[in-house]
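debug: dumping io for the single-chain case to check the tokenizer round-trip. Nothing else runs in this session.
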Amino acid sequence: MSRFTDIYTTLFKISVAIMLQYRAVLIIWLIGLVLQPIIYLVVWLTVAETQGGQVGDFDKGGLAAYFIVLMIVNHATFDWHMYEMGYRVRTGAFSPLLLQPLHPIHRDIIENVAYKFITLSVMLPAVFLLIWLFEPTFGAPMWAVAAFVPALLLAFLVRFFVEWSLALLAFWITDTSGLNQMYAVASIFLMGQMAPLSLMPQWVQFAAGVLPFRWMVAFPVELLLGRLSPEQVVDGFLMQALWLGLGLAGLALTWNRAARRYSAVGA
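debug: decoded output
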């Protein structure tokens, strides 16, 4: 454990140093993470205004709370390596990672955490500003607030390992950009990023619950808003554990085959 602690600490410092050299890129990514939920929030608040201040089971304060919490959860759980894997494989950038005595996924996890650590200095003020502007209403019981922390951690792990496993398709498919775009579009609907899942058609809600999408984002959001019963929370934790296990199993089954298949001719 001490060896891994030293490795992770060193990788974290390196990742922070590298990212601070590319501040403009960090800002661009962060703007996207902040603007998307704000745009959807304004759209749904406009819809609520035309319907007497209510959309489904959400009033205007509830909508504001939903999209503000969504922004926090999406920032905490998102990962970009799925969209980089194809580039790594095509250009040979994966070669030095394979020569190291540590699985490349460890470096990606630390890089992910380092990015979120750096951008908290901007994300938190943005959250407080949105709370001041849109006056959200929060009413979650304390047990739900306490359960939110492990739910958020599991959501991050599920999203990371499922997406990293899917990213390994880049070892068999020359260009994964089309698949990545399809996944991104599905995520917008099935993770509850465009709208709360309770406002979506029944078939969308069913697909989001059967597939891992709901458990990556929407579940911790609904939990922190106090919109779930204790029984639903237990079921949610079980689904997160199931998909985390499936993500790890998919990674274990495909990694060795992918690494053996890999051949680099890039720049």
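debug: round-trip ok. Strands lie at 54-55, 58-59.
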